[in-house]
UniProtKB/TrEMBL annotation, chain A:
Domain of life where this protein originates: Bacteria
SMART domains (alphabetical): ETF
Tagged with keyword Chaperone: no
Cell inner membrane found in the keyword field: no
Gene3D superfamilies: HUPs, TPP-binding domain
Family to which the UniProt record says this protein belongs: Belongs to the ETF alpha-subunit/FixB family.
A Pfam family this chain is assigned to: ETF
Electron transfer flavoprotein alpha/beta-subunit N-terminal domain location: 3-192
Keywords: Electron transport, Transport
Protein name in UniProt: Electron transfer flavoprotein alpha subunit
Automatic annotation (TrEMBL), chain B:
The name this protein goes by in its record: Electron transfer flavoprotein beta subunit
PANTHER family, per database record: ELECTRON TRANSFER FLAVOPROTEIN BETA-SUBUNIT
Domain Electron transfer flavoprotein alpha/beta-subunit N-terminal, chain residue ranges per copy: 23-210
Keyword RNA-binding: no
Source organism per UniProt: Hymenobacter caeli
Keywords of the record: Electron transport, Transport
SMART domains: ETF
Pfam families: ETF (PF01012)
Amino acid sequence: MSVLVAVECAEGEVKKSSLEVATYGARVAAMLGTTATAIAVGEASEAGLAKLGEQGIAKVLYDAEPRLKDFVNNAYTKLIAAAAEQEQAKIIVLANSNIGAAVGSRLSVRLKASLATNVVALPKTDGGQFTVKRGAFSGKAFSDVVLSGERKIIALKKNSIEASHEAGKTAEVAAFAAQLADADFADAPQQVVMQEQTGGVLLPEAALVVSGGRGMKGPENWHLIEELAQALHAGTACSKPVSDVDWRPHHEHVGQTGITISPNLYIACGISGAIQHLAGVNSSKVIVVINKDPEAPFFKAADYGIVGDVFDVLPKLTAAVKALN
Amino acid sequence: MKFLVCISNVPDTTTKISFTPDNKEFNKAGVQFVINPWDEYALTRAIELKEANAGSTVTVLNVGEADTEPNIRKALAIGADDAIRVNAAPQDAYFVAEQIAAVAKDGAYDVILMGKESIDYNGFQVHGMVGEMLGIPTVAPAMKLDLAGTTATLEREIEGGKEIVQVSTPFVASCQQPMCEPRIPNMRGIMTARTKPLKVVPAVGEPARTQVAEFALPPKKQGVRLIDAANAGELIQLLRSEAKVI
Ligand SMILES: Cc1cc2nc3c(=O)[nH]c(=O)nc-3n(C[C@H](O)[C@H](O)[C@H](O)COP(=O)(O)OP(=O)(O)OC[C@H]3O[C@@H](n4cnc5c(N)ncnc54)[C@H](O)[C@@H]3O)c2cc1C
Ligand SMILES: Cc1cc2nc3c(=O)[nH]c(=O)nc-3n(C[C@H](O)[C@H](O)[C@H](O)COP(=O)(O)OP(=O)(O)OC[C@H]3O[C@@H](n4cnc5c(N)ncnc54)[C@H](O)[C@@H]3O)c2cc1C
């Protein structure tokens, strides 16, 4: 019995959300008195994988099949299932990403496992039950869920725990061959198109986020958001109407019908704070609201606020950040 | 082409969430239920593809008790041809997926469309489970879906970009914006919806694999600390020294 963590890699490095997954898996393993093994997917490198020792991973399995570089649902499912069998893993942890959750749901059927997605905290194991806390009602609530199956799969929400870094510890990287056949790659993508992100920061993984709403008046003013974001190394986001009218790309839309994020800092500029918007961001650790209307509902959900004009306030904030650095 | 569109019955997006006093159940009192917003993309796209492919049909499916029927009728009013309700409380995602897989197999549907995720339980899982149960591909979440004969071309959103994927029928896809402009029912649709067939079938399969033990609301904020706009830079100092987030 062991814990298996599935880590996603890009450009030879383990993604930030997967470092969180590795940390989570190692902690669960410690709780259960066992060890955590990782299986790598995506564009991995041995050097990048060995660093998973810093998150408490003892061993990393790596299948060098080149077609595993892109996300192929069937192949990834088969690969992780094979690793779970070899390691006799009773608990599998993945990122709650479009890859991790998609694979996790297939795996749960294949391995007859109980699945919890969108998990935000370490499990509780008292009373012989295995209970995890997960986000529900699109950021408006949490639910404690009992996973009753012998095997359990957990998809960990991004930014829910902080990755540990025990400098100098390395993991053993072991070759793993899942014996994948051509048929397993039938749903391989024809083409992968990456979008440019502000400052290269991926919004779902960002620790800091600067976001704009209709109060920004038009796409020509977004440089104010981007300049502050770049100074902070933050990602950029927007409200739904802003992406609906194409001022910003759709993948930046946060909220109940967009993505839900939980960064350490969320700065909302010219956003009123509608309930559907709040749902996507209210698990952010610190919320800053800049709005010229002191009655804007967002102030009720904020930790810090500035009642003022974004066109006046944003340049001042950017200058203050630059002065700090 | 036979399209199966799975719709979930969820609290309206403006709902203030609360629970029963023991925190074991969602408090439905006074709550307006709607078709899950993402499922509206699945439904509208299925209807558009039906219109473009003569001889096609769109069936809507919900796993739920009788109180979901107004939203099933709404889906019929938007343009689905008929409906199936699996008469059971949706215990968990695995249970729901079993019901959908059984209906899909029984009716030999070519294209099974769902929403990206339910806005109440946020699972993002039923589509993957159904694909695996039926041994067919699932593309989730899909931002674009085109059909040419039995070949579908989809755009799947991945973190930081998208993938172009081609699959042949049968397949499962979970839909999200900007796939289409969700339609709303018109008067004629509402009239004809009343007489469209809605079949109620019993549940099948194994018991649920997960149980909700308790719900909780996020902790309340302490209240906002306001900083004078003239002194906006002070905010940055506070974020570093007090909040310690930068
Ligand atoms: C089914 C459904 C789902 C939805 N899902 C989402 C969702 O996922 N995400 C989402 O964001 N919304 C969602 N919405 C929309 C939501 O209800 C609001 O309409 C939306 O969030 C408002 O966007 P906004 O705050 O940018 O614009 P507005 O509400 O127009 O607010 C603009 C704000 O900017 C302020 N302002 C104007 N000028 C300035 C200035 N110069 N300086 C400073 N402040 C200024 C104004 O005081 C105002 O508060 C949904 C709605 C529905 C019905
Ligand atoms: C009283 C009550 C108790 C519940 N207890 C639990 C519990 O203990 N554990 C648990 O996991 N869930 C529980 N649920 C949630 C419920 O079972 C969910 O419908 C189910 O888990 C699927 O939600 P999801 O977020 O996982 O779906 P997702 O995977 O996010 O949904 C994706 C898509 O699947 C389709 N879909 C989802 N649900 C249905 C449906 N019912 N009918 C047709 N299509 C559907 C829709 O197209 C949807 O967009 C409970 C619900 C109720 C009402």
